[in-house]
Amino acid sequence: MKFFSLRLLWLVVAAALTGCFLGVVAGAGATSVDQPAPGVLIEYWNGASWTRQPVSTPDGSGSLSAVATVSATDAWALGWYGGTYGDGNGLAEHWDGASWQPVAMPAPSGTDVEVRLNSLAAISADDVWAVGGWAAAGRFNGSYGTLIEHWDGSSWAIVPSPTPGYAAQLSAVAAVSAANVWAVGSLAHSSAADISSSRTLVLHWNGTKWKQVPSPNPGHYLHPSTRLSGVAAVTPRSVWAVGTYSGRGATATLTLHWNGLKWKRVPSPNLSGGNALMAVASVGRNDVWAVGGYGGGCGCKGGGLTRKPLAEHWNGHTWRIVPARSGYPRSNDQALTSLAVVAADDIWTVGYHQNSTDLCYHGLVEHWDGSAWTPMPSQNPDSDHFSEIAAASPAAVWAVGTSYVGC
């Protein structure tokens, strides 16, 4: 499975550790010889409905894994292109208020390099960060390193970043200010680069350079698998990171908090089966949301997952679970992958769900109105999934991901 979205990879790993295997998933970022090449997907909320926006890539293929907004007329989307078995070229698309246009991004030096861009943080029109990973082609199951790029208003440039060990990748980035930016991900325990044996990775930008910052790793010693997949900056003394770790038998949610001095683990609840948090977003210090999925097992048609959406809320004292609905009663597998905050009573989350009749995957959108999460209809003409969502205003919201023609 080449070019597998990191945000969805965490869910697959969590499922595998609970005893369930996810095979080729159309619309979940995987590719196979039985599928056409994936295409990029961008949908736009104008305050009344979701519509699909046209976007092109150099060869027509690709997948989008990140989106961030400066304003309603200045937004970025990142991912990759290169065909079903391409080299994984980095892809940047910019919204100027009228259309999406590709913008060149540099790749690490060398020939035949694969690039994965997983997350964006937009501070201003001339200060945007992108994070991910890179490797020699075909090596994403082995040794690879962190990749951080910066937009200065005129071009993208690679910024040196630590790669402390094997299989280091960054899955999310968030900014407190121009001189205070956080990036999180994971790295392997050993040179074997076994993705089922990993630990948390946290990097910090101080305005001059990126440095690694120590972070907790609560994984059980027999199955040391701990990953961070989302980060949200509230204040200089309040930053949240979320992910998953392997406990005694099933994966569990992981929430870490930066208090201005160090990262500490904060207890978070779990439901039955394996649990994973994929994204986190903040309304304020005492109003933070995290989303992901829970469940597992192989009781559904075709031997797939039975995962359900998971939403958790921090009220300043504890994390508690808030029911999130799939809205698709004939769905085997649903999960949430990203959050976008407009206001305390206007929050979006996206992900994917699998129809139990045809086993096709489709985008999943839910909205928080201050009292409940409600599924919202979106455009799903093919087999789609959403990776990330970002909001510039109540009437300017973008969700990005991957679309396949057919299922």
Give a quick summary of the entry.
This protein is mostly beta strands.
**Biggest sheet, in brief?**
4 strands, antiparallel
**CATH class call:** Mainly Beta
Beta percentage is over 45%
**And the CATH topology?**
Neuraminidase
Structural class: mainly beta
Question: How would you portray this structure in words?
Answer:
- The protein is mostly beta strands and 407 residues long.
- It has one domain: 6 Propeller (Neuraminidase).
- 3% of the residues lie in helices and 53% in strands.
- It is built from one helix and 28 strands.
- It has a four-stranded antiparallel β-sheet with strand order 2-1-28-27, with no helix packed on it.
- Mean pLDDT is 83; it is low at 1-34 and 298-304.
Which descriptors apply to this entry?
407 residues; mainly beta; Neuraminidase; four-stranded antiparallel sheet; 28 strands; 3% helix; globular; disordered N terminus
